[in-house]
Amino acid sequence: MTKKLDLLDIQGNVLRPYGRFGYPVARYVFLHVSDGEKGRAFVGAVTKSVTTSVTWGAGPDQVPQPDWTVNIAFTYQGLKDLELPTASLIGFSSEFVAGMKNRKDILGDDGPSSPQAWDPIWRENRVTREKDVHIFISLNAHTPGLLEDSYAWLKGMIEASDGGVVLLSGHLGDNNAVMDYQDVKVVMENGLPTAKEHFGYVDGIGDPAVEGLTADPQFVLGRGKQMADGSWAPLATGEFLLGHIDEAGEYPPAPNPILLARNGTYMVYRKLHENVATFDAYLNEHGKHFPGGKELLAAKFVGRWRDNGAPLVKAPDQASKDAFDAQLAAADQQGRDALLSNFTYDDDMSGAKCPFSAHMRRINPRASLEFTRDPNDVPGSLKVSTGAFDTPGALTNRRRVLRRGLPYGDVKDRSRDDGNHGIVIMMLNADINRQFEFVQQQWINYGNDFKAGNDKEILLGNHSADERFASKAVIQVDPNSDQPPYFLSKIPRLVETRGGDYFFVPSMTALRMIASGVVDPT
Questions:
Q1: Given this model, what pLDDT does residue 360 score?
Q2: pLDDT tens digits, residue range 289-301?
Q3: Among 131, 173, 197, which residue's Cα sits nearest to residue 27?
Q4: Considering only CA atoms, which of 349, 350, 356 is closest in space to residue 382?
Q5: Side-chain half-sphere exposure of 354, counting CA atoms within 13 A
Q6: Is the alpha carbon torsion for 505, 341, 407, 193 positive or negative?
Q7: Which of these, 340, 370, 351, 369, lies nearest to 221 by C-alpha position?
Q8: What is the DSSP string of 314-340?
């Protein structure tokens, strides 16, 4: 029987990447709960306008697409100050309870990424807890004007709370101006919106296919889990939503009662500054020496070509890239999605096409970590080396996250790193430690699973400025060729953390329970 999700109970930003639905601008607002009872009343008032995951359209099971969306989430301290019962609070994960700042050593947030370098809203002295971040509200809109309308509505709701919640300032903007909110928007080129971030890469490709959500079999190709017969299936809902079975055939750990947890999820919010001048200089310098040139080297950094996201495993050189581009141009949207996502690393186990330190391979290795696979196996007849699961990429399937967010700021001078530009990324998962934190620690900042020792992921790795601990990466080549591998040395820190925290995104049912003060863990 086909699984169906209750889309009216799931917040819209969990299952829907708003940027692809005509919302190119957004504003993230953070609040502090000053009074539990008034704070709950505020949550109840906002909940009436929260956007769900229900399909937009004109059909009987659809609703009209809104001009702007509203979604809400909470830190652990926020739920505590909203006076959830202790018996419910103790059921939340220890990572969520601790918060991102206290997980800095696990995440590699050191040096220029350390909490003391974060935006003021995240690094203020919280001894008195008077400025703790408790509530996250996201507003996504079709136009800047509509975004201002949504923010005016929210400010009215905050004022109506009669001091129950307080707007927190402290987001750094242009010229280090301190803002009351974090604005994000798509990157524009020649007056047109793009899917790129500030380094120039097309972003947002390959979001996981979730069981119970995706009806289009084309969308599942390369986005779900690879089966033993070479086919693809959606990932278990419980990898992303609490109260559902996960890839291990179990329910992920969750707080009580079940109505508080079910259809909710954990959200990792991270503001990442991009050092575009350092990136350009490093790429230009090594691009002079790399066989294939600068753009191929840029593709090796990520695993996709910058201009359109063509995967290196399908387009490993310029000639094959030209052929791939022709296919892409002739395809419809579904066909383009499949071309960009439907691939494996089965014929690239040496990393000759997509390096082991490339961003895409590190965050989603697919089944390529099974180095013990029988070399006589061919795609379509894969064998699982562990015998624990019936999917070739069982390890990777348990590390997937849903990615949301948009770039922030404009790059006004590519010769400088200190501008206001980067990306706000929000990752949704059922288990912060098993999914986000594992990928961040073991696959981004450490390379042992890829037989790469201490080599970090090129783009997001916490590379050190201390030459004693300088980062390197190997750009692999075909082991049967006479060409030597190319070594990237002294990789600089290209991305720096500017703040963030862990949030719980409740279902609509749970929001109403929280607002009414009727959460009962017994």
A1: 96
A2: 999 999 999 999 9
A3: 173
A4: 349
A5: 30
A6: negative
A7: 340
A8: T--SHHHHHHHHHHHHHS-HHHHHHHH
